[in-house]
């Protein structure tokens, strides 16, 4: 796994995401999710390209129900961009790199 991507849990979400000085793109995923696995390498590339401007975090929905329910995640992959502790934008479903970059750029 890319060292630029952090793994968060219900216990670390507040500190790593909501209190982050950088915007954070959170990938809600699960091990059994094919589309989640498809976008993982794309997110790794984006994490490198946006280092210092954007933090990317992954949270396993099966192991972290509190945060998953708090943000009403119903389908995966779900990507939520947080800025200054607030959910700014949501994208549900797999997407190409160009689509993900457009989503990020439109909401940073």
End-to-end CA span: 24 Å
List segments where confidence is low: pLDDT < 50 over at least 5 consecutive residues. none
CATH architecture: 3-Layer(aba) Sandwich
CATH level 3 topology: Glutaredoxin
The strand line-up of the biggest sheet is 1-3-2-4-5
What does this structure look like?
The protein is an alpha/beta fold. It has one domain: Glutaredoxin (3-Layer(aba) Sandwich), CATH 3.40.30.10. The protein has four helices and five strands. The chain has helices at 13-18, 34-49, 65-70, 97-107, and strands at residues 5-7, 24-29, 55-60, 78-83, 86-92. A five-stranded mixed sheet has the order 1-3-2-4-5. The two termini are 24 Å apart.
Q: What are the defining features of this structure?
A:
Thioredoxin_domain; transport; Thioredoxin; Glutaredoxin; protein-disulfide reductase activity; 26% strand; alpha/beta; disulfide bond; 108 residues
Concise description?
With 108 residues, this protein is of the alpha/beta class.
Tell me the layout of helices and strands.
Blueprint: E1 5-7, H1 13-18, E2 24-29, H2 34-49, E3 55-60, H3 65-70, E4 78-83, E5 86-92, H4 97-107
Parallel strand pairs: 1-3, 2-3
Antiparallel strand pairs: 2-4, 4-5
């Amino acid at each position: 796994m890319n060292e630029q991507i952090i793994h968060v849990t219900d216990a670390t979400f507040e500190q790593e995401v909501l209190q982050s000085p950088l915007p954070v793109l959170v990938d809600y995923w699960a091990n059994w999710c094919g589309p989640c696995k498809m976008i993982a390498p794309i997110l790794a590339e984006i994490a490198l390209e946006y280092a210092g401007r954007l933090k990317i975090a992954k949270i396993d929905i099966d192991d972290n129900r509190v945060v998953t329910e708090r943000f009403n995640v119903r389908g995966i992959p779900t990507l939520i961009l947080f800025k200054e502790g607030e959910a700014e934008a949501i994208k549900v479903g797999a997407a190409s790199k160009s689509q993900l970059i457009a989503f990020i750029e439109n909401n940073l």
